[in-house]
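User: Let's play a game. I give you a shape written as tokens, and you guess the letters that built it. Ready? Here's round one.
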């Protein structure tokens, strides 16, 4: 397979390693080209996985797969430049930083194979929770993702990372879109949603550090809290039902059921990415009938995350 990687930051490097590992196990050969926008040297372990590096897209070259794993604000330009040249896209979340983009014109129509990353859906905890939700009718849902941005990468000045810079796609609305992604996968699109977002803390960033949503579904309500300033990391969902409350904690790896029994399973963080990559390769080969997260679906999720009061499911 001829593979292009547009972006080799931390998530791009992770996907590259997982791709090479799974291809090796499955007896495939991935010839990888890295599209670079900087001359910053790559580490030796990454260089060994690459066949070549380029700085411009060759208009006559075609790729079986393209991984769009650079900063969010660059996604649209790279995808447009690759229109008609790629068998299947893997696009890191979020899809784009704007919603006023015509997917057909961009080359991401329904006939184009393309998957948008949704790693939380591939965690053991989420897959177990989804099974339980098949027989549960919620009254109310409360979800939170709270952490302290300067603590994400202690060795790096948080003021210089993309999360701190609005023009690069930073801010909790886009950066923490994982939550809306799994909530919509679990419950479907809300009938209505409202958002309050902005910069409220003393963090030295120009992106929003808080977003609070209230959403209405036909038979229940949903509250979602996202922030960059929580000193104690929290990532959980509480589902209130007639039998009691289900609490799923993504950090602890536990699901507490209404009657007090706890389902617990700890796994290495890379497990979810390996599951996702295995699915994607199967999808590329035509072994999967269902696209777990198409650009069309990802655009709907982006509209809800952006707080757009009016959107039409397509």
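Assistant: Ready! My guess for every position:
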């Amino acid at each position: 397979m001829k593979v292009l990687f547009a972006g080799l930051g931390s998530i791009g490097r992770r996907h590259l390693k997982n791709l090479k590992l799974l291809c090796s196990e499955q007896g495939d050969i991935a010839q990888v080209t890295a599209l670079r926008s900087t001359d910053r040297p790559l580490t030796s372990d990454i260089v060994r996985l690459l066949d070549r590096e380029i700085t411009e897209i060759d208009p006559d070259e075609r790729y079986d797969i393209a991984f769009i794993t650079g900063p969010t604000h660059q996604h649209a330009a790279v995808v447009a430049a690759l229109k008609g040249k790629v068998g299947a896209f893997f696009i890191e979340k979020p899809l784009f930083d704007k919603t006023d983009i015509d997917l057909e014109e961009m080359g991401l129509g329904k006939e184009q194979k393309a998957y948008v990353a949704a790693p939380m859906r591939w965690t053991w905890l989420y897959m177990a929770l989804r099974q339980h939700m098949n027989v549960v009718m919620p009254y109310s849902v409360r979800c939170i993702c709270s952490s302290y941005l300067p603590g994400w990468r202690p060795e790096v000045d948080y003021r210089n990372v993309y999360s701190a810079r609005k023009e690069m796609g930073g801010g909790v609305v886009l950066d923490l879109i994982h939550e809306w992604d799994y909530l919509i996968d679990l419950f479907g699109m809300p009938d209505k949603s409202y958002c309050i977002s902005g910069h409220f803390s003393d963090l030295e960033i120009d992106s929003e550090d808080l977003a609070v949503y209230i959403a209405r579904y036909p038979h229940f309500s949903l509250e979602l809290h996202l922030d960059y300033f929580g000193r104690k990391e929290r990532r959980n969902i509480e589902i209130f039902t007639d039998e009691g409350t289900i609490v799923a904690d993504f950090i602890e790896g536990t699901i507490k059921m209404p009657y007090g029994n706890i389902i617990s399973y700890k796994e290495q963080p890379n497990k979810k990415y390996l599951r996702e990559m295995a699915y994607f390769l199967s999808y590329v080969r035509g072994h999967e009938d269902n696209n777990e997260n198409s650009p069309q679906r990802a655009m709907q999720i982006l509209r809800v995350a952006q707080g757009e009061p009016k959107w039409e499911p397509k």
